[in-house]
Amino acid sequence: MALKSIAIVWACAALAQGIGAEFAQCTNLVPGYKNNEWVFPRAFCKNKAFDMWIVTELNLSQCFTLDDGNLVPASNQSPGISACTDCYVGVLNIMYCNCPANNGTMIFALTKLPDTITNDDGYLACFDQRSTFIEATPYPASS
Asked: Cα separation of 10 and 15, whole Å?
C-alpha cells in the first residue's frame, strides 16, 4: 500500500511539473464576474522566497480573447472574454467557459491556464500584464 501511495505522490508531482511548477504554487483560482469582466478576484500565489502568499486580482480579458467562441491567449484584445458565461477552473488548471461563436451559438470553450498565465513572484501575470495587489499573508500562516 505504501508503494502505491508513493507512486500517486510521484505522479501528482510530475503533473504539477507538466502544468507549470510556478503556477502550481497558486490557489483559489475561482473566476468571478466583476464590472462586466471575468477575473480571478482573490488568487493566492507563493512568492519566490516561499515566505509570503501574495493575494491579487487578475482581469482575464488581459490574457484571453475570443476567436469564434474559442478562448485564445491574447494581450488586451477585443473582444475579451466578458461575453462568456459559467466560467470555472477544473482539474489541472483548465478553465472552462460557455462562449459565443460567430454564428451566435454558445460553445463549451476551454484553455490550459499555465500555458498563458504565470506566477511572477506571487503575482499572476500574462504577457506584459500583472495582477493587482490586494494583500500579503505570511506563509506558512502563523498559528
From this structure: 9
Q: Which of 38, 134, 35, 22 is nearest to 95 (CA)?
A: 38
Residue carrying C-alpha cell 478553465: 95
- The overall longest dimension of the chain from CA atoms, in Å, is 54
Is the CB of residue 117 less than 8 Å from the CB of residue 99? no
Query: Which pLDDT band holds residue 142 (cuts at 50, 70, 90)?
Result: low
The helix (run of H) or strand (run of E) holding residue 7 is: helix 2-18
The label of the residue with cell 505522479 reads 11
Taking only the tens place, the pLDDT of each residue in 1-21 is 443 333 333 333 333 344 456
Residues 6+ apart with CB under 8 A from 31: 38, 39, 40, 60, 87, 88, 89, 95
- What tens digit of pLDDT does each residue of 75-126 get? 877 777 999 999 999 988 899 999 999 999 999 999 999 999 999 999 999 9
Q: Is 20 left (phi over 0), alpha (psi -120 to 50) or beta?
A: left
Q: Residue 83 in contact with residue 66, Cβ under 8 Å? A: yes
Place of cell 502568499: 53
